[in-house]
Amino acid sequence: MADTVESLVAGWPVVIQLPVVWGEMDSYRHVNNVVYFRYFESARLEYFRRLDWFEFERATGIGPILAATQARFRKPLTYPDTISVTARVGSLSEDRFTIEHVIVSHQLRAVTTEGQGTIVTFHYAQGKKVLVPEDLRRRITELEETVQKQ
What we know:
Strand content: 35-45%
Distance between the termini: 24 Å
Mean pLDDT: 95
Number of helices: 4
C-alpha cells in the first residue's frame, strides 16, 4: 500500500503546503538545494507564529536566532509539484532547541528531505543569548501536545 501525504505528515504539529515554483529549479532540472532551506524557514516561521513568538518578542525583547541548520536530500523535487513542509521541536535545552522538518512531495507521495535547525533564544536589546523563558517553554509544550489531541 502506497503512503499518503496525510500519513507522512501525521504526528507533526505544524504542516504547511507550498507550491514548487518553476524558478526554484536549477540547470539540473530539480529544485536547487538552497531553496529547501527557504521551505524549512517558512515552516519554522509558521511554528513561531503559532507560539505567538512575535508578540512575545515585542513584550520581552527575546527572539529566535537560527544558529545552525542542515538537510538530508533523499529525492529531488521538480516542477510542477506541491509540497507539505513540517515543523516540530525535537529537543529543548536551557538556551536552545532543535526544530525538525520533513518535506513531502505530493506528486511522489514520499519524504524528499529531512532537516533540522538549532534555535537559540536571544535578547536583542542586550545583544546576548538567554535561557529559553518558561512562558515560551510552556507555549512549545502546548503546541507539541496538539498532535496527540488530533
